[in-house]
Design brief:
Elements: E1 4-5, H1 8-14, H2 33-42, E2 51-56, E3 60-61, E4 74-84, E5 88-99, E6 102-110, E7 113-115, H3 129-140, H4 145-152, H5 156-163, H6 170-176, H7 184-191
Antiparallel strand pairs: 1-6, 2-4, 3-4, 4-5, 5-6, 6-7
Length: about 190
């Protein structure tokens, strides 16, 4: 799913943002987004193929700071629906990042379920999001695992566990938060 080529019609539909059009750009065929989303979902090995994408709306840029410049890469949100057997229907909200003519990230929310690409290799359990964010914050602040343990008065194995797949204890949260420039409240919300 990562680094997937996109057709010209798919790129045009993902870059057509009527909300941000100042001069009224020529409308594009947004119908190409339905099969695109369907193909992306079907690439997931556990996706129930009885569910089909039934509609897709216009793409909308997720972070648009200037309306006169089209960013590249860009991440867009695409609303839609999925249905099964003509009876059930759930809302769908896809986030797609494109870079040039390539799809580089796909995340979707179907009903209340968020489906995102894994960060770990196949067969390896996904780490708790706290560990992913803590690792990134420590890296950006230039703090090693050993240094974090020293600063917090905790064992290096405790920091390793927090960086790994376990939900951290409150003492770990309150100790590491100020070291990475976060509030205890924000770190607690991340852990929950």
């Amino acid at each position: 799913m990562r680094d997937r080529p996109l057709s010209e019609a798919e790129i045009a539909a993902l870059r057509y943002w009527p909300r941000y059009a100042r001069t009224g750009p020529t409308p594009v065929d947004g119908d190409v987004l339905v099969p695109l989303l369907g193909e992306l979902l079907e690439e997931l090995p556990w996706w129930d193929r009885a569910w089909r994408v039934t509609s897709a709306g216009h793409a909308d840029p997720v972070d648009m700071t200037r309306i006169d410049v089209v960013p590249d890469p860009v991440e867009v949100a695409v609303p839609g629906t999925v249905g099964r057997d003509g009876a059930d229907e759930l809302p769908l909200s896809a986030r797609i990042r494109i870079h040039g003519d390539r799809l580089v990230r796909f995340e979707v929310k179907v009903g209340d379920l968020v489906i995102a690409p894994g960060r770990e290799p196949a067969g390896t359990p996904e780490r708790h999001r706290f560990g992913v964010v803590l690792t990134a914050l420590m890296t950006s602040h230039g703090i090693s695992r050993r240094e974090m343990a020293r600063r917090c008065g905790l064992a290096a194995s405790t920091i390793a566990a927090a960086m790994g797949g376990r939900r951290p204890h409150e003492r770990v949260i309150t100790s590491v938060a100020p070291e990475v420039g976060m509030t205890v409240e924000d770190m607690t919300a991340l852990a929950d």
